[in-house]
Design goal:
InterPro entries: DtxR_MntR_Metal-Reg, Fe_dep_repressor, Fe_dep_repressor_sf, HTH_DTXR, Iron_dep_repressor, WH-like_DNA-bd_sf, WH_DNA-bd_sf. Belongs to the DtxR/MntR family. In the presence of manganese, represses expression of mntH and mntS. Up-regulates expression of mntP. It comes from Candidatus Gallitreponema excrementavium. The protein is mainly alpha-helical. Helices cover 71% and strands 5% of the residues. It has six helices and two strands. A two-stranded antiparallel sheet has the order 1-2. A hairpin with a 5-residue loop joins strand 1 and strand 2. The longest helix has 23 residues.
């Protein structure tokens, strides 16, 4: 499933916020991403129209299976890339920023190899 980087960023933000605080609203996403509420509202409604999430009558946002699958994939990429960069000696701030960029463009093949490599250290 291929979607735009911006949509991946929204889905990743939603799952991260859900993991931190449970219920998520558009205002939470707006604050986390630093985007205006109208910008977030448009993006969230587009994601809803495309079947990635749903918004209930109280404005709470939840991921539907396709959105959750993408969000978990991007979050996993982010966490593993950040871990690799920190282990290489990159500062946490830079590792965070770089992981955020690279997670959207790295190929499946390269990421899978990096993941296997980092996991081999955990088994030692």
């Amino acid at each position: 499933m291929v979607i735009q980087e911006s949509a991946e960023m929204y889905l990743e933000t939603i799952i991260s916020l859900q993991n931190k605080k449970g219920n998520v609203r558009a205002i939470d996403i707006s604050r986390e991403m630093g985007f205006s509420r109208p910008t977030v509202s448009i993006a969230v409604h587009k994601l809803e129209e495309n079947g990635y999430l749903k918004i209930d009558e109280n404005g709470f946002i939840s991921l539907l299976p396709p959105g959750k699958e993408i969000a978990e994939k991007i979050l996993e990429r982010h966490n593993i890339l950040k871990t690799i960069f920190i282990r290489l000696g990159v500062s946490e701030k830079t590792a965070e920023k770089d992981a955020c960029r690279i997670e959207h463009v790295i190929s499946e093949e390269t990421f899978d190899c990096l993941k296997k490599h980092i996991n081999s250290f955990k088994q030692e």
